[in-house]
Design brief:
It comes from Hymenobacter cellulosivorans. By secondary structure, this protein is α/β, with parallel strands linked by helices. The protein is built from ten helices and 34 strands. Strand 24 (564-566) and strand 25 form a beta hairpin. Helix 4 (374-389) packs across helix 5, helix 4 (374-389) packs across helix 6 and helix 9 packs parallel to helix 10 (575-584). Mean pLDDT is 92; it is low at 1-29 and 354-369.
Length: 702
């Protein structure tokens, strides 16, 4: 259980503090030095803390959606992946019991779902069928229920049904051809087949737990059977929704009290080419009719090539808005500005003379095969706002209502471009922003200054966007832990008026950007905690911040580090997750100026601090980072505080090992510990543990 320690003078206090954290006691001063005295100007409050201050960045990288947050267990359920229709599927024993198995388009279910598999067996056999491997296996829990559904059509012959089996992967052999069966966890038979397409649904209850199970489908009898839209979905989803999200992962997000949820990225917004870009209109409506798309990350890194990585869009824009609502976060959708990823093709959509949107094309329009101009992208943005906020009488608002959400989602932000840079971005951004503002003046626009936090392109973009009165400028930085500690004052000299800052993507890299050897170490996390004191101290300039990336599957990642790791059954928060959570669950309402003795800078002697007032609870919240191997006794002078209470709360995140990490087996290796402490006066003393991030909640009003 969480523990902490009382604030007392002397060595005894230090020993109690450290032992409660499982750390070796260290000799500390009997009194704080002048250098370790921090004055919080409670009587000189600064800017309000934006409700969006600390949030989440979601991108479908590292199997974050399919195989992760979106809990569909069947990979490639509709055989629609171009040129690779059997990804995820294997014939049992190399199809020894099948005469043929092929993908066909002969009288499909629909125009968008126009491929299916046709199985034919000359003679009845328990091996006449296919196995789906799932997303690095299928996670099944004992006694949990799973809804299996499939579209079937009987052809010539005497096939009387489809045998459905959930089984654990066999331990011997390399795949279904070598090991056709494992421990059976659930089994049933679907019968009543007809000569027309018909959907069949059954519920399977697992007799055991398996992290790497699989689905086996075999013909009952000889002949031909057509099969499509094969799905296996857990009944235990967030809010028990039919197309809901994975519960443990959503809980980790909700526990953070996020101010916003950015979606769908990230470079995935752009695509390697414009044809492969993320198109929100292709991700709504009937789940079975959503056409899959190659994931931009599937072949990006040779060291982590994942050619089977595709997006099913089961988690689409409707589910995204719904998830934002579920966890209490403002949705911040990011849309393509007419540019493919500049790290890939750099393809550009032409800017036409009109420079504005075309007429509303209505919800039936599909851009997938277009040669789009900038107007296409602008119209998509306008239609998305209508989808989120429009009345039922509007074309796209009606689409939202038809999907089961009559009330508007109350969208307030929209991002124009993800991480673009250079004049190509600015010349597209300007007419794009102008068109959005003309129709929806109340929407706040997030703009980009590229992937680097400095340099000529960064400076030019920042200057121009401020001239255009951009509301929010999105800055990204992936750098060493040292960079984060050294740049704690990054925003101290930014303008207090005009454009605000969104620290949209950041994470300390222990080895190097995009290195597969990066770790979610305590050194990285505590350095981010130090940097975030600088964000909080500049809450009049910074209104949004999010760590990136958010999720990673332990068997299917492309990028490290990542905030939350998971396998098919379990998940854990990294030390970085707990840093983010400690900020986002203690955001306060008003910034309070913080001063060091003798005008010392924030971070001097590796002591970092920030403070806010929480007017909702009547508390002063002080955040302290001690990046030192020694305990440190600090004095906190609450200047002008009123109505002090006697009992405060300390939350401490610490480890004596800067290389410490969490894992599936040790998820709490580095985790916060809580306890109350005594407050005797407006001069509060507290012993900070070595290498620690501490949040003090002190009852007192301003």
């Amino acid at each position: 259980m969480p523990t902490s320690f009382p604030t007392r003078f002397g060595r005894l206090a230090s020993s109690v503090a450290l032992s409660s954290l499982g750390l070796a006691p260290a000799l500390a001063q009997t009194k704080p030095t002048a250098a370790n005295t921090i004055t919080v100007q409670v009587n000189k409050p600064g800017a309000p803390i934006a409700k969006t201050m600390y949030g989440l960045f979601f991108e479908d990288i590292n199997f974050a959606a399919d195989g992760g947050l979106y809990p569909e267990l069947v990979k490639n359920k509709s055989f629609e992946i171009p040129g690779q229709h059997f990804i995820g599927w294997n014939a049992i024993r190399g199809a020894a019991a099948l005469e043929t198995y092929t993908v066909s388009s002969d009288k499909p279910i629909s125009a968008t779902n126009n491929h299916f598999v046709r199985l034919t067996a000359k003679t009845a056999s328990p091996d006449a069928g296919l196995i789906n491997e799932g997303f690095r296996g299928m996670g099944l829990k004992q006694d949990a229920e799973y809804t299996f559904s499939v579209y079937l059509r009987r052809g010539p012959g005497s096939v009387s049904g489809l045998n459905v089996t959930l089984e654990e992967e066999a331990r011997s052999g390399a795949g279904p051809e070598a090991a056709p069966s494992g421990r059976v966890l659930a089994q049933t038979k679907i019968s009543g087949l007809t000569a027309d397409w018909k959907k069949y649904t059954v519920v399977l209850k697992s007799a055991g737990t398996a992290a790497k199970a699989r689905l086996k489908l075999t013909l009952d009898g000889a002949g031909t059977l057509d099969m499509d839209v094969v799905t296996l979905f857990p009944k235990d989803t967030w809010n028990k929704r039919e197309n809901g999200m994975r519960t443990d992962l959503v809980q980790l997000l909700k526990d953070m009290n996020p101010g916003f949820l950015r979606f769908p990225g990230g470079c995935i917004v752009e695509g390697r080419t414009l044809t492969e870009r993320y198109q929100w209109k292709e991700t709504i409506g009937d789940v079975a009719s959503r056409v899959p798309l190659v994931n931009r990350w599937n072949m990006e890194f040779r060291h982590r090539s994942t050619p089977d990585y595709y997006q099913s869009f089961g988690l689409g824009f409707f589910e995204y808005f719904q998830l934002s609502e579920d966890i209490g976060a403002e949705p911040v959708p990011i849309l393509n500005v007419g540019m493919a990823c500049q790290f890939n093709s750099s393809e550009l959509a032409p800017i036409t003379a009109a420079g504005g949107p075309s007429a509303n094309e209505g919800p039936a329009h599909n851009h997938a095969d277009d040669d789009p101009t900038l107007e296409t992208f602008i119209q998509d943005a306008l239609d998305l706002i209508e989808f989120a906020n429009g009345p039922v009488s509007s074309p796209w608002g009606a689409k939202r209502v038809a999907m089961g959400h009559p009330a508007p989602f109350n969208l307030k932000f929209i991002g124009i471009g993800n991480e673009q840079w250079g004049p190509q971005y600015l010349e597209r951004y300007e007419p794009f922003a102008k068109a959005v503002k003309a129709k929806y003046p109340g929407i706040n626009i997030v703009s980009s200054v590229g992937p680097s936090p400095d340099g000529d392109l960064f400076d030019k973009a920042t200057k121009r966007l401020r001239e255009l009165k951009a509301e929010v400028i999105d800055e990204h930085y992936y750098a060493s832990p040292e960079w984060f500690r050294q740049n704690v004052g990054r925003y101290d000299n930014y303008p207090t008026t005009g454009s605000k800052i969104f620290a949209g993507e950041y994470a300390a890299q222990t080895v190097g950007i995009a290195s597969p050897d990066n770790k979610n170490s305590w050194d990285a996390a505590i350095s981010e905690a130090a940097f975030m004191t600088g964000l909080e101290r500049n809450a009049d300039k910074v209104i949004m911040a999010s760590y990136a990336p958010l999720f990673a599957h332990v068997d299917a990642w492309q990028w490290t580090p990542d905030m939350i790791w998971f396998d098919n059954l379990r998940a854990y928060g990294t030390p970085n997750y707990y840093v983010q959570k400690m900020y986002s669950t203690n955001p306060g309402t008003t910034m309070l100026p913080v001063q060091r003795a003798d005008n010392g800078k924030n971070g001097q002697d590796n002591l970092f601090s920030s403070a806010v007032a929480d007017d909702k609870t009547g508390e002063i919240v002080v955040k302290l980072v001690n990046y030192s191997a020694e305990a440190r006794l600090v004095a906190i002078n609450l200047q002008g505080v009123k109505k002090l209470g006697k009992n405060g709360k300390a939350t401490v995140l610490a480890s004596s090992d800067l290389n410490a990490v969490n894992s599936l087996d040790k998820p709490q290796n580095v985790a916060p510990k809580d306890e109350s402490f005594k407050v005797n006066s407006a001069n509060v003393t507290y012993t900070l543990a070595p290498n620690s991030f501490t949040v003090l909640r002190i009852p007192g009003k301003r």
